Amino acid sequence: MTEPSRLRSRPTMDDVAAMAGVSRGTVSRVLNGGHNVSRQALAAVERAISKTGYVVNQHARSLVTQRSGSVAFILSEPQDKLFEDPNFNNLLRGCTQVLAEHDITLLLTVAATAEDRQRIGRWVTAGHVDGALLVSNHLGSPLIAELKERGLPFVVCGRPLGQERDVTYVASDDRDGARQMTEYLRSTGRRRIAIITGPLDTPGGVDRLAGYREIAGAGDPYLVATGDYTQASGEAAMTRLLSQAPDLDAVFVCSDLMAAGAITALQRAGRRVPDDVAVGGFDDNRIATTTTPLLTTIRQPWARQSAEMVRLLLAHIDGAEHAAVILPTDLVVRDSA
Amino acid sequence: MTEPSRLRSRPTMDDVAAMAGVSRGTVSRVLNGGHNVSRQALAAVERAISKTGYVVNQHARSLVTQRSGSVAFILSEPQDKLFEDPNFNNLLRGCTQVLAEHDITLLLTVAATAEDRQRIGRWVTAGHVDGALLVSNHLGSPLIAELKERGLPFVVCGRPLGQERDVTYVASDDRDGARQMTEYLRSTGRRRIAIITGPLDTPGGVDRLAGYREIAGAGDPYLVATGDYTQASGEAAMTRLLSQAPDLDAVFVCSDLMAAGAITALQRAGRRVPDDVAVGGFDDNRIATTTTPLLTTIRQPWARQSAEMVRLLLAHIDGAEHAAVILPTDLVVRDSA
DNA sequence: CTCCAAACTGTGAGCGCTCCCAACTTCGTA
DNA sequence: TACGAAGTTGGGAGCGCTCACAGTTTGGAG
User: Fold this and answer.
1) H/E segment holding residue A135
2) How many CB atoms lie within 10 A of CB B1?
3) Residues paired with B312 in a beta bridge
4) What are the tens digits of pLDDT across the range B232-247?
5) H-run or E-run covering A195
6) For B208, phi and psi rounded to 5 degrees?
7) Residue B281 in contact with residue B326, Cβ under 8 Å?
8) Which nucleotides in chain D lie less than 7 Å from some protein C-beta?
9) I need a surface site. Which of A103, A224, B264, B265 has the fewest CB within 10 A?
10) pLDDT confidence bin for A103, thresholds 50/70/90
11) How many of the other CB atoms lie within 10 Å of CB of A202?
């Protein structure tokens, strides 16, 4: 490698101070809120800043403040998921927005492979970020352990299965939501209620299944199928269910995206929705209003979820204790059930 | 805000050096390749590193090296696009991978609003990253001008309309790809070839339209409709075209995702694909192999595209001159035309 | 007129690292 | 035996910033 031609070497605080005819300290004060600075000093500094095009060197600042002004949004999921599942979209949008209000930048990293997770773990703990938001963690995620050991503040989205101890997390009440939906299906007279669960190494997988079982009973294993939250997996699971239990009259699908797939499978099999088979989803994201018929589903409070995650993370960065927040869910009745 | 309880204060190089019984300089040498370090010093340092759990403080390092070891992937697009369009996925995956080989982390930022763009512009130029990959830039993107002024190395994906001067970019040969497709449709006997373009403030919008016109002529304005690269917009545009020009016998759709929408619209209108209307796409991403019938399309060399972008960015960071790379495209014939 | 608080300003120390240079060791060779 | 080259090591300087503290000014109260 040849000698790199650095960025056009940027002006420093000293340059600004010299031009404004004040000291470094005064420039620093202006940069950090402008308290205890006289009117004319402030004006002079601001003029010098815009004249020199000065931008604070974040590395130097971080070195002394021990703060970077950014947090990581770590998605532990193969990349396609990110692009298919609107839930991540909702979450990401919410977090970015709330963080922006605090003037903190959100860095999105996708940990698709174990190797990625390692690199990201190193990167995150090298001081690049003040904290992390962990999304979509499967059972036994090594990232949680690593961050915990490093003492990097983080908040997990969803219950971190088997690692709830000393971990801050925000989750929807998956179990209760599942209960609500199953109960509702039952209340409309359905008797053979199947379920398409999420992966059983995720909280959304196990907790929603548990909620379903509280109402539907442990019952018939032929009424249970598992998907991976993709539309294709919902379609496949539904097809399986239909062949295992042709007499089912309702299905609770643990995500809207999978529910869309399930509806496709049902219609291809000649079943009418909801006349022959009622379909209930989970999430209430944009998919729910694009299916035909419109999807009856459980609303997860996405906005509150992201707001809580950010709030807890910032609190945690400021030294607060661990906390777990469980948010309530609502039944949204549309046409599919 | 109360006094923050910083991270458990991390060990520094001096701690490691003390434990290993060597000097800071030697530890630094070990960290940076281990050249000119005796076997036993190296072993001692490595032992001390793992015993203390030392991780280099990136801010301190960056402060002196003027390098951060990360680059930004800036997507100037409303967030939903990111999640719907598989092209971004392809690009992102490719860039992450190639950068990882250089041990550089990729930071994804989504600049959905003008406000976001400002915040990101500030953030990027504050020295957080060594360079930026700009994706999906619309006409007159202010980000390009800002980065250029700041002297931050960057590479644009796609031709930066009206800002090609002194800007490094990598693009597919949109014009030629469009030409190939239109020519192919013509060669199969189609005579009323419509087009659904991308937004006309993007290179993919204008250049593909230009390529189409070279073959199809400026012709009938009723044969031209514009979408925004979403599936829904493809469907809507196709519906419009059908009512404007019911006798069309082929349509060149400037993205696979829109083509999927167009096929839906055609089938709903009772037209058979390709018998009544031939459909050609553009991109050749995973959508192309999930439509029925399978999509005949133009392959964009995604892997090469990302590899070239990264190569140029790294070169640029190392002081290389500006460059423009245009990559050739291929016609992929499947069933829809 | 004096004195003290409040407002403002400058300065040195130091964040944790890399880079450079001087110094020391070792060894093969004249 | 002496000497230079090559390999190895320590330590000072300094990256650009914040923070604490001391110093200066101002103005109102006593």
Assistant:
1) strand A131-135
2) 6
3) none
4) 899 999 999 999 999 9
5) strand A193-197
6) -70, -35
7) no
8) 7-12, 14-21
9) A103
10) confident
11) 22
